[in-house]
User: What shape does this take?
Amino acid sequence: MIWRAHAAPPRASDASATSAAIAAPSIVLELVSKIYASGGGAGGESIEVAALRDVSLRIERGEFVAIIGASGSGKSTLLNILGCLDRPTRGRYLLDGDEVSGLTEGQLARIRNERMGFVFQAFNLLPRQTALDNAALPLIYSGVGRRERRRRAGEVLAQLQLADRVHHRPNQLSGGQIQRVAIARALIQRPNVLLADEPTGNLDSRTGREILEIFRAMNRDLGVTVIVVTHDPALVQSIPRIVRLSDGAVVEDTTRGAAAPPGEALP
Ligand SMILES: Nc1ncnc2c1ncn2[C@@H]1O[C@H](COP(=O)(O)OP(=O)(O)OP(=O)(O)O)[C@@H](O)[C@H]1O
Ligand SMILES: [Mg+2]
Assistant: This one.
């Protein structure tokens, strides 16, 4: 898979960024906690679940990070917060230098649309729409005309080896092809950050490697920050930075080739 870099003009959102924002790391979490209250007690009392506990994390532009950990350890919760789909209960999130908690819903929606690409395990493709229209969907929200939407969607799908499937609907595609349509949709806005939750979970290992290869090419060729939640040991092995969660806390943060600070890595 060869990912061809676009000669993309700078986007309006980039032009409006301050110089401080450009110099800042992409993502800074400071002591972020997420507490869910759910009325699930045996006696009907409310139970609090700390899905994240005092997570501090700094991710530079262009990094490639795997988030790993047992089921229930907080991976999806963390990804949702990073993607501005959810807000921390406590702590600070600085995205490109901006404090996320100070932004309005409208501003957050715009950030999600323009700067973030999401690939989730439940791919959320629209079942009655073709691959082309599914991939083009985010462009509707940013007001791109139909003709240009279809042109760009066709281009991205072709880069993902789906040129001959653009008019297929999801139920006419294989799992790996559906996943690639979801990736096309995540890429169509040329996001700064790509967030993927178990993107290879339902795929055979070869297709899984192909998906990872697409991410790697985007990261290498386009400088996209990639953050991927995965259980797949084969994928984890080849990702440069590993953040491990246990019970909502970061218990390991290792960058390949760099020793973890003493006391931070688990045996
Ligand atoms: N909306 C919610 N209300 C209450 N508790 C929640 C909610 N969402 C998640 N949790 C709890 O928070 C914890 C972390 O959940 P999360 O989905 O982040 O785990 P995960 O690491 O992604 O797990 P998995 O690998 O199974 O997907 C779990 O204990 C879960 O039960
Ligand atoms: Mg999860």
Observations:
- Residues 75-76, 197 surround magnesium ion (ligand 2) (CB under 6 Å).
- Residues 12-255 form a domain with the Rossmann fold fold (CATH 3.40.50.300).
- Strands lie at 27-38, 47-59, 64-69, 90-95, 98-99, 116-119, 193-197, 225-229, 241-246, 249-255.
- The first helix runs from residue 12 to 15.
